[in-house]
Amino acid sequence: MPDPISLVPLPRSVTWSSGSWRTDDPWGGLSVGVSEELPRTEYALSITPQGAHLTAGSEAALADGRNTFAQIVSDAAGEIPCVTISDAPRYAWRGLHLDVARHFFAIADLETMIDAMALHRLNVLHLHLTDDQGWRIEIKGYPRLTEIGAWRDRTVIGIYRPEGEHEFDDERHGGSYTQDELRGLVEYAQRRGILIVPEVDLPGHMQAAVASYPELGSDPSRQVGVREVWGISDHVLGVSDEAFAFVRDVLTQVADIFPGPYVHIGGDECPRTEWEQSPAARARMNEWGLTRVSEIQGRFTDFAADVLREQGKRIIGWDEVLESHLPDDTIVMNWRRDEGVEESTSRGFPTVVATERFLYFDHAQAKGHEEPIAIPGGITTLEDVFTGRLVPKKLTEEQEALILGIQGQLWTEYIPDAASLQYMALPRLCALAERAWGSPEQSWAEFRERLAAHLPRLEALGIGFRPLD
Ligand code: ACM
According to the 3-state scheme, what is the secondary structure of the chain? Predict the structure, then answer.
């Protein structure tokens, strides 16, 4: 029997049968239960003329089953075809990253993205909460982070080129979330089967914090502002006791707000310029017995890991953390090169594949001037996301087993509002979900056809997307 309802991602096993369940209240008629007889990641859904029944091996798998059910009932008005589904994901980490620092998004906008993720059985929202251009999270004892660090007076217009001249918009931009708002978001996500992993990017990407508290930088007598252009800032954390106390205070509060097992500590793109020029940094290196300036970053990584371990959490870092000392319990998030995945897994680190080549959704989706301006650095089409090689060929079986999953990235330098965010995320997010779930292999043409039938569902839910070509 041909599929009467298009599902994205496609479950492992779907058998439609004739007959239907007539109901005006499908959620009311769904019975659910966790069963110890099923593997923890598996769910089974059956719809018969009498009703619908969902069992799963865990609460997480139950959420997956509910999210599949949501697709089935969303467009089957009053008459739902009978089906038997048995399903489990390939990867435990099916992630979407969202940068709320370069542009601020209201909680309601984040909830819409969570809805979109849940519908596609993605289960990790990686929230990039701090960066040079904005600090977005309330930290008790550091009010200037949100009074000053959350706001920039103006923003560069158009594509930023470090060597070029630029115009600015002269509009104050910013905003931040209270701890209570973030706790509410955590709960909203949890109810839909999604874990929020917070990121505090350190020791680089810290200009907004240094603008709020100059003593956190390498030269306390210098006042910098919140960064108004994109690119990489030299204003990173200094090595003072104040800077380390700050890291402890921030991570301790973050660990308390976000109950999940992981905190992302960034670690990417940290210039050493200020450390190289700082007598205090040189003195610290002597004290710590370090010979290379880059090892200062390793001290931050170790310190952050220790603080978070005390809270029962593990750190995650972008793959640059591999370049200096790294605790054994780190999880690596690879964005730059395939060799990074080979290295992290050969050194035994669980790894999330977030490759810039195929999974950066801030890239334009097509050539041509009809597309909104996007980050320079390449085009990533929907087909690229569906077909690109994500996990390097060369891995051994042991290394493969260390791949936790895959994740799409939404950096928001060129994504100023919720409509743009949805346009850039979808439908690439659908292809990401298909791969993260490990759906039965289909050709690009088959996927595209299934997607064409699925997109009206997004429209009905009020979620924006780029139409298919
Ligand atoms: C990154 O794109 N800087 C992780």
Answer: CCCCCCCCCCCCEEEEEEEEEECCCCCCCEEEEECCCCCCCCEEEEEECCEEEEEECCHHHHHHHHHHHHHHHHCCCCEEEEEEEEECCCCCEEEEEEECCCCCCCHHHHHHHHHHHHHCCCCEEEEECEECCEECECCCCCCHHHHCCCEECCCECCCCCCCCCCCECCCCEECCECHHHHHHHHHHHHHCCCEEEEECCCCCCCHHHHHHCHHHCCCCCCCCCCCCCCCCCCCCCCCCHHHHHHHHHHHHHHHHHCCCCEEECCCCCCCCHHHHHCHHHHHHHHHHCCCCCCHHHHHHHHHHHHHHHHCCCEEEEEHHHHHCCCCCCCEEEECCCHHHHHHHHHCCCCEEECCHHHHECCCECCCCCCCCCCCCCCECCHHHHHHCCCCCCCCCHHHHHCEEEEEEEECCCCCCCHHHHHHHHCCHHHHHHHHHHCCCCCCHHHHHHHHHHHHHHHHHHCCCCCCCC
